[in-house]
């Protein structure tokens, strides 16, 4: 065995970084995304390159003024980084690039749970339990639980407003007129857009469909809202109220930076996939085995040294 063969045998196969080990998100604007000299870079109008560690980021949110080359999209897909085209400040979502495609067995499992009313109710009840730390009221339909949740959420917003000393007029905003909303509502919109972007990336990476929801339905991100809302009040909502209290000049930017830090300190990415599995397992049915010709997961998990109770 020559030296090159020996070194190749000693070096493990290069695999994309697992979602749970990545940084959560990065906002980019006003530049050309490209692959130059084997590096993923953002090039500004003066030709200055900013290297971006694409493989260690969960998703890139591209704001107005951003252009993307074919090579950049290909590399993002290969390393499993989701590209999301958003409005200024991340307040609108226009399109998203899927990082590798969903798995048919996961999609069928998710769809079966959503189409069966009894199974769907079990999943919704589990989501209620995880969000409010108590069992859902008995003998309630999905629509009734949705109404109960809406009332509780309104009260939680009021409590946060009292805690931070902010005048609260309710959750109100106009997607066509960003500046018409007051400061706290703009902060809340910016914060939730960060959470939804990260959650969508994880949903896609796990092989599920963002549109097949349980409590939410009829929207392209229904399942994203289902999962994100479970952790929203412990992650991004406090951030939005904190920023609104200090009222910085660029509140949207401050919210995004603090959300990124909150995702890291709460280890959100390592929690979301187990959270999804816990929610869906509440239906009480066994997921179908994948067919022999199924597409492998975007980022395969290597077998760890411990048993199934040890997370690697």
Characteristic key phrases:
single chain; 312 residues; alpha/beta; Four Helix Bundle (Hemerythrin (Met), subunit A); 2 domains; four-stranded mixed beta sheet; 9 helices; disordered C terminus
Write up this protein:
- It is a single chain.
- The chain has helices spanning 3-10, 70-79, 104-115, 117-132, 142-164, 183-206, 222-246, 251-265, 268-281, and strands at residues 23-28, 31-36, 39-43, 49-51, 57-62, 66-68, 82-86, 93-97.
- By secondary structure, it is of the alpha/beta class.
- It has two domains: 13-97, Ribosomal Protein L15, Chain: K, domain 2, CATH 3.100.10.20; 104-281, Four Helix Bundle (Hemerythrin (Met), subunit A) (Up-down Bundle).
- A hairpin with a 2-residue loop joins β2 (31-36) and β3.
- α4 (117-132) runs antiparallel to α9 (268-281), α6 runs antiparallel to α7 (222-246) and α6 packs across α9.
- It starts with a helix and ends in a 31-residue tail after the last helix.
């Amino acid at each position: 065995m020559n030296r090159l063969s020996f070194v190749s045998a000693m070096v493990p196969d290069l695999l994309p970084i697992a979602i749970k080990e990545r940084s959560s998100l990065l906002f980019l604007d006003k530049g050309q995304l490209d692959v130059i000299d084997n590096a993923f870079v953002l090039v500004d109008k003066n030709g200055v390159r900013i290297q971006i560690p694409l493989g260690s980021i969960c998703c890139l949110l591209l704001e107005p003024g951003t252009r993307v080359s074919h090579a950049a999209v290909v590399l993002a897909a290969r390393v499993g980084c989701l590209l999301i085209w958003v409005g200024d400040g991340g307040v609108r979502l226009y399109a998203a690039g899927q990082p590798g495609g969903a798995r048919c067995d996961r999609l069928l499992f998710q769809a079966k749970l959503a189409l069966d009313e009894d199974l769907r109710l079990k999943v919704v009840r589990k989501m209620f339990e995880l969000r409010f730390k108590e069992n859902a009221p008995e003998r309630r339909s999905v629509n009734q639980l949705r109404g109960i949740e809406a009332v509780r959420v309104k009260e939680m917003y009021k409590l946060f407003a009292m805690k931070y000393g902010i005048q609260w007029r309710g959750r109100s905003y106009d997607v066509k007129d960003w500046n018409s909303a007051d400061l706290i509502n703009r902060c809340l919109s910016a914060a939730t857009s960060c959470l939804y972007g990260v959650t969508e990336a994880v949903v896609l990476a796990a092989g599920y469909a963002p549109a097949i929801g349980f409590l939410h339905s009829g929207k392209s991100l229904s399942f994203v809202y289902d999962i994100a809302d479970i952790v929203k009040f412990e992650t991004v909502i406090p951030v939005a109220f904190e920023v609104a209290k200090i009222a910085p000049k660029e509140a949207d930017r401050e919210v995004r930076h603090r959300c990124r830090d909150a995702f890291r300190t709460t280890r959100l990415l390592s929690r979301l996939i187990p959270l999804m599995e816990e929610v869906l397992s509440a239906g009480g049915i066994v997921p179908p085995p994948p067919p022999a010709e199924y597409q492998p997961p975007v980022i395969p998990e290597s077998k760890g040294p411990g048993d199934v109770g040890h997370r690697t």
